[in-house]
Structure formats: C-alpha cells, structure tokens
Design a protein that fits this description.
Blueprint lengths: L1 E4 L7 E2 H7 L8 E3 L9 H4 L4 H12 L5 H12 L10 E4 L2 E5 L9 H19 L3 E6 L3 H10 L5 E8 L5 H8 L6 E7 L2 H13 L1 H6 L2 E2 L6 H18 L7 E6 L4 H11 L4 E8 L4 H8 L1 E3 L19 H8 L4 H14 L1 E3 L7 E5 L2 H15 L5 H13 L6 E4 L7 H8 L7 H4 L9 E4 L2 H14 L1
Parallel strand pairs: 5-15, 6-7, 6-9, 7-8, 8-16, 10-11, 10-15, 11-14
Antiparallel strand pairs: 1-2, 1-3, 4-5, 12-13
The structure holds pyridoxal-5'-phosphate and the ligand N[C@@H](CCOP(=O)(O)O)C(=O)O.
The site of the ligand N[C@@H](CCOP(=O)(O)O)C(=O)O has 13 residues, from helix 6.
Length: 456
C-alpha cells in the first residue's frame, strides 16, 4: 500500500518510509492512497484475539513487512499490557467503558506507541539507521513515547511538554525515566506552542534530514493505524452480530483518536455515531456546529491533556470532507494560516460534537463513582457525559483514554478525596525528575537538539 500527503506535493511512499518520514515534506499528513473495505471480513474476524485482529488489519497497510515479522512486532508490542484482552470493556451505568489504559503508562497512547516503538526498532535495524524523535505532548503521548522507546538503541527521544500544565503525575512519569536517550524539555508555553514548534522544525527539511528527525505524535500514520484496531475489537465484543450498529463516544483534543474511529467506519465497521467530546477548549465543537474552524485561546482545565486549540488531525478529516482534493485542502490551510480561521463543508452524519465544562466533568466523575462504583478519569468523563446527554437511552462505548490515577488533583476536586489511584503511579517520586526548561522558540529547541546530539 502507498501513502500520500494531504497537501498533494509529496511523492507517494510505501508504509515503512511513511512511518520513518512522519510528517510529509510538504507540511501535510500521510493517508493511505486508498482505504480498504473490510465489510466482508467482519464475520471471520469476530472471534479473533486482539493481536490476531491487529495483524489482520495492519498487514493490509504494512504490506512491505514480511508477515511473520509483523506478527512478531505486534506480539512484542502487546506483551507489555496488564490485561489479556489488551483493551477490555467494562460496564458502567448504561454504557460500556472501553479501557484503553492497561499499557505501561496507563493511557490510550500506549496502544499505538508500544507498537510504534517495536516498529521503529525493526525498520531501523533492517536499514541500519538511527532516528531522533521530536515529540510534543500535553502529558500522555510523551510518557507513552518514552516508555515505548527508552530501550531502543538506535533512537533518541526529545519530548516537549508545557511547563507546569500537565498533571504532576504525568510530568513525573516523563521526567523520572533516567535513560541517556531520553530528553525532556519543559516549554514555557502551551501544548499548541510545543506542537507548532515541532511542525515548524519538521518543515525545515535540511535540518530534519541532517538530524534524522522522526515523529511519534499522531502526525505519524502508524499511530492512527494502531488506534483503528480497538474500534473493531470493541465492536465485536459489544455486539452479537455484524448487522448491529454501534456508537462510540470519544474525548477529543488533537482529533487523532476520533479520526481513527472515522477511518474504521470508512473501512466498513458498522458505526452509527461518533460522539465527539471536548472540554472548554471547544474549537472542534464549534467547527462541527458551524462549519467554521477558528482557533481560540487555551483554557487550563481539569482534563489537561485535551487543552488543545489546534487539532492536528483535523487536516486529515478536512482532506476527506473536501473530496480528497489536495489543492482545495492546501487553500483551506492557507486561509487558516492567514486569518486564524477556515470555512469548510459541515455535512457529516457520523460525528456529533458537544463540550463538557469543568463543573459537569467533576459532577460526572462524582456520579459515576457513587452510582456505578467506577472512577472515571477527567478526560473519559467528558465523553461519558456527552454519551449520556446525546444518547440517554442507548448503550454507548465510551473510550476511557487514561487511568484516573494520573489525575489525582481532578479526582479530589470531584470526589473530595483522592480515590482510583494506581500502585505504579504511587511509586513515582518528584526527587527523581530530570528536565530542562526552555522558552517557546523554535531556535531554542533546535539548539537543544543539536547540543544534546553532539554531546551524546
Ligand atoms: C487522556 C487523553 N484523553 C483524550 C485525549 C484526546 O485524544 P486526541 O488528541 O487523539 O483527540 C488525549 C490527548 O489528546 C489524552 O491524553
Ligand atoms: N493529548 C496528547 C496530545 C498529543 O496528541 P497526539 O495524539 O498527536 O500525540 C498528549 O497527551 O500528548
């Protein structure tokens, strides 16, 4: 299978090259040139284990990797999960909670980053290459990337996070990994600043090439591919036959997780609705309501990983919504760059969006804890609230994107005490943290990369 850029000015690449390249050289994001239709596979896939299903789906996309090698990559990736089901479903009230947090860092990012880590090792070994990852995180991608790559001999990882704007535990998870290939940068700015600098640096093609830069954020196609698998898996576990339709509710920030669901639907999974939930950073809700995508200022919320105003993967969605016309997409992105807003074709039956503010998020955590004895993390709570609001009489699969133990500050605000913690997180210590603080300027980050690699 070949991959093309949303902006249409990059040659199509095979899977492994698209993974190594990360962000397309024309500034766009890779997508498969054609999406497969899996409708006639659903019957034979229904009873597969998670890793068997992952192989069936991924082998279509990664067809330049020999099948036995791909199987081994997948097996290794998911051997680190603490639940045999990898992404189990738990009932809570009328909903089913899709627990995506059984990987090493207790967030949904592990599902893709454990896979991407082993995939990078494989490709770099095959090609005898080295790679320097530059990542931007609002808290979870960073630690998942660090845990996915800390033992990779051919990789250095530079992670930018917004200084003092993640939860304390998220910062400790990232900054206590004392491995010489891991470099944490606390940026005096927002996640949007971090992601903006990352994209800026990837667009400086000479620098990117000179320092072998690669991506683990959802700009990398491998992230989305791995995330489509759990929509299929959850569908088979939550339904009795393939004629049934099922809806999902997805807490959303960078639009990667919900976009993986959108792709699953495009590939023939019978999805009825994708409910998009945001916190006060509701740029996507406003976009789906009005057809105007307009950046606002960042609000610091009790669900800090979703404090995002520039949703990277919205570009991939726009590409489909403008009929896969790269010229049109480019002009929309230029309109956005010039005016800070763009207008697009709003018609989308599949996605319905609502915002969930702080008060409602905290009330949802409290209610679910009291009524269902289930502690939701604050991000998951936004999705659960939206599912209850928009589909009060229907069983919805709500994506649980993180373990509650990562956000004790928010849980305490909701419940009056810290409950739902986790022994892995309790063992972290602030004293072991190592990071450098940097201002939000692209040149500062570049010089940190250069200096670190020279010294390594
Ligand atoms: C815990 C958590 N929930 C939800 C999200 C939103 O996911 P996405 O950025 O893929 O929309 C993120 C990160 O953005 C997250 O870390
Ligand atoms: N919430 C994310 C933000 C980055 O999103 P990504 O999916 O593009 O990696 C995080 O936790 O860092």
């Amino acid at each position: 299978m070949k991959y093309r850029s949303t902006r249409g000015q990059t040659d199509e690449l095979p899977f492994m090259d698209a993974i190594l390249t990360g962000q397309a050289p024309d500034g766009g994001l890779f997508l498969p040139s054609e999406l497969p239709d899996f409708s006639d596979k659903l019957d034979s896939w229904r009873d597969l284990s998670y890793t068997e299903l992952a192989f069936e789906i991924m082998s279509v996309f990664a067809n330049d990797i020999p099948q036995d090698d791909l199987k081994e990559i997948i097996e290794k990736a998911y051997s680190t999960f603490r639940d045999d089901e990898i992404t189990p479903l738990a009932p809570a009230g009328k909903n089913l909670i899709l627990e995506l947090f059984h990987g090493p860092t207790l967030a949904f990012k592990d599902v893709a980053l454990q896979f991407l880590g082993r995939l990078f090792d494989y490709i770099l070994e095959q090609r005898d290459l080295k790679l320097n990852i530059l990542a931007a995180t609002s808290g979870d991608t960073g630690s998942a990337a660090i845990y996915g790559l800390k033992d990779s001999e051919r990789v250095h990882v530079f992670v930018m996070h917004p200084h003092n704007r993640t939860s304390k535990i998220q910062a400790m998870q990232m900054c206590t990994v004392n491995q010489k290939n891991i470099h944490n940068i606390a940026v005096e700015g927002s996640f949007d600043d971090c992601q903006g600098m990352m994209k800026d640096i990837f667009n400086q093609l000479d620098f990117k090439k000179q320092y072998d830069l690669g991506a683990v954020n959802s700009v990398n196609w491998g992230r989305l591919l791995a995330q489509t698998v759990y929509y299929f898996y959850a569908y088979f576990r939550a339904t009795e036959n393939n004629q049934q339709k099922l809806s999902f509710s997805v807490p959303t920030g960078n639009f990667g997780d919900i976009f993986a669901g959108y792709l699953a639907a495009k590939m023939g999974l019978p999805i009825k609705k994708l409910y998009l939930a945001t916190n006060e950073n509701d740029v996507l809700c406003r976009a789906f309501d009005t057809g105007i995508y307009k950046k606002g200022t960042v609000h610091h919320s009790v669900s800090p990983s979703m404090d995002i105003q520039l949703a990277s993967n919205f570009e991939r969605y726009l590409f489909y919504s403008c009929g896969q016309d790269a010229t049109k997409l480019r002009s929309l992105m230029e309109e956005f760059k010039a005016k800070g807003e763009l207008h697009y074709d709003i018609s989308c039956e599949l996605i319905e969006a609502k915002r969930c503010d702080t008060e409602t998020t905290l009330a949802t955590i409290k209610n679910y804890s009291e009524e269902n004895d289930y502690v939701l993390d604050p991000h998951t709570a936004t999705g659960v609230h939206v599912a209850d609001l928009l589909a009060p009489d229907e069983q919805i699969v709500c994506l649980a994107t993180a373990h509650s133990g990562k956000f004790p500050e928010s849980i305490k605000l909701a419940c009056g005490e810290v409950i739902g913690n986790h022994p892995i997180l309790d063992a972290l210590s602030e004293d072991d943290m190592k990071y450098q603080v940097a201002d939000a300027h692209t040149e500062t980050i570049k010089s940190i990369i250069v200096k670190t690699l020279e010294e390594a």
